[in-house]
Amino acid sequence: MDYANRGRPPRKKKPSGTAKGKARNTKRGAASKSVAARPVPWLIVILALVLVGLFTWFLVSINGKSEESEKTLPNLTKQPVTDADKLPTKPEERWQYIEELENKEVYVDVPERELGPPKLMQCGSFRSLDDAQALRARMAMVGLEAIVRASEGTTEANRGTWHRVILGPYETKRDAERDRHKLQRAQIFGCQIWNWNLGEL
């Protein structure tokens, strides 16, 4: 059997482009005719007109009522003021505590000024005079003028000459505390306040 010479099945003819265009045009024309042929919704139009009319009537009726209420309100400003409408007079106030405070004595505890010998503040005690003078120079940089006093040790462990760096004398301990805080801000610590007299050193 000869399969090569066998005939092929005939091809179907495609519709031409003009035929397709004609079919599309006819569909569009039918759609536009159906839109144009729809009836006007008269019920919706009538309902909208009725609503607009009711709203207008409501506004007009409100406007008329406001004018009538203004006419019917009583004019309160023109009514005469009688004695019954006046407020009662304000009674005189008597403050008792003012009189009491004028005659009252107040006792306040005020601490008495510190009594006793003047205060001295020792910030260091050195065997070497150079060390004492170095601390005195650091204190002078802060603005405090110290003195260096040589004294002899009284115990066996402290025998020999000691050079004390001293500030003062101060009349009160508060004055000495003020200078001690100033030295602490300059990193100079260890100052101690004593009830000493310069003649005793």
UniProtKB/TrEMBL annotation:
Record's keyword annotation contains Cell cycle: yes
- Which Pfam family, any one, appears in the UniProt record? SPOR
- What is one process in the GO biological process aspect for this record? cell division
- Where the record annotates domain SPOR, the positions are 113-196
Annotated Basic residues bias: 8-27
Give TM regions: 42-62
PROSITE patterns, A to Z: SPOR
Which keywords label this protein? Cell cycle, Cell division, Membrane, Transmembrane, Transmembrane helix
Q: Which GO terms describe its molecular function?
A: peptidoglycan binding
Q: What is this protein called?
A: Cell division protein FtsN
Q: Which organism is it from?
A: Pseudidiomarina planktonica
Tell me the Gene3D superfamilies matching this sequence. Answer: Sporulation related repeat (3.30.70.1070)
Q: Where is this region: Disordered?
A: 1-32
